[in-house]
Design a protein that fits this description.
The chain has 409 residues and is α/β, with parallel strands linked by helices. It has a domain of 106 residues: Anticodon-binding domain of a subclass of class I aminoacyl-tRNA synthetases (Four Helix Bundle (Hemerythrin (Met), subunit A), Up-down Bundle), CATH 1.20.120. Helices cover 43% and strands 15% of the residues. The chain is built from 13 helices and 14 strands. The chain has a 5-stranded parallel β-sheet, with helices on both faces. Strands 6-7-8-9 form a 4-stranded antiparallel β-sheet. Helix 4 packs across helix 6 and helix 11 runs antiparallel to helix 12. The chain is globular.
Length: 409
Amino acid sequence: MHAWPASEVPALPGSGRDLRIHDTATGGRVTLVPGPVARIYVCGITPYDATHMGHAATYNAFDLVQRVWLDTKRQVHYVQNVTDIDDPLLERAVRDGEDWTALAERETTLFREDMTALRMLPPQHYVGAVESIPKIVPLVERLLSAGAAYELEGDIYFSVAADPSFGAVSGLDAEAMRLLSAERGGDPDRPGKKNPLDPMLWMSARPGEPSWDGASLGPGRPGWHIECVAIALDHLGMGFDVQGGGSDLVFPHHEMGASHAQALTGEHPFAKTYVHAGMVALDGEKMSKSRGNLVFISKLRRDGVDPAAIRLALLAHHYRADWEWTDAVLTEAVERLARWRAAVSRPDGPSADALVEEVREALADDLDAPRALAAIDRWAAAQTADGGTDEGAPGLVSRTADALLGVAL
């Protein structure tokens, strides 16, 4: 599966700062000091509907992580998956009377177009669940052989007891885990499971549903968590720098993925740092496909909204914050974009050397994008009020907004 084209990232004078970021697993801030190649895995979409503002907010957060790393002169090895086989996708295809593969391909294509328009840097490896099945099956077989998985009426489940550090990512108690498992795709009430929290690794073939050769497992399809584990281990290995996604993935997805990988390899940790973006709401509720309260990126683009304004609307909120999309949020972003573009269109202006460092410091401080926007706001206001004599300043501000914030002026 192919990703989307990369936009050029301008080089800035000097060098960026190491990123200090909130780690979900420890509950505190850590300084990320990767090697020459920083490794990041971000969980991708289940393509049964178009990209909405919640998706965009998540991928914007991890785009900023990449840009901070690139500014430190590191390379970035970024991997993202596509869950192109799962219950919600099949259910939507049945509802609409559409072939599930056609639905998945159409929505994945639209996602790529949205990411391109928003200038999100693409992953080096963009990998679908279906194409990963040949790598998933041997992992499930290994877990069975090691006694870390078991069979129940043809389905294969992972035993959370196989990982002594299970629970370390989310820090939740058993009851909270059980409630979230039921809400987020698990089946804690299924009779016969060793532990209600045990997640499915391999679902045996169901009548009328697609299935694949599972070798000794029999025909079926993979569970959600083992998909990402197989892709991450294949392309990044254990101990990669950042596992990312929305805060709704902390449990069960990232908790279970870590346990799968640690039980498979006997190594710890799966990821060094777990980073999660907040949720975007509309009309007082989290924006989600199941609720249908969505603001689609593609719809905004069709309505003539500049993608740079959409990006500024996202950047106006701290990545870990839960926030609500409103018309006022978009209006403010459109107005900010107009002010910035007017300011950098002049032939000279106030010196911007300190501004570059201010934006760098803001982003290095747990991706504080609102603080970075405020710094450019101040420069634009000074440009409007007093002007300046530095002929290189407008171009430097423009390159800074592009390189560090992904906003093309």
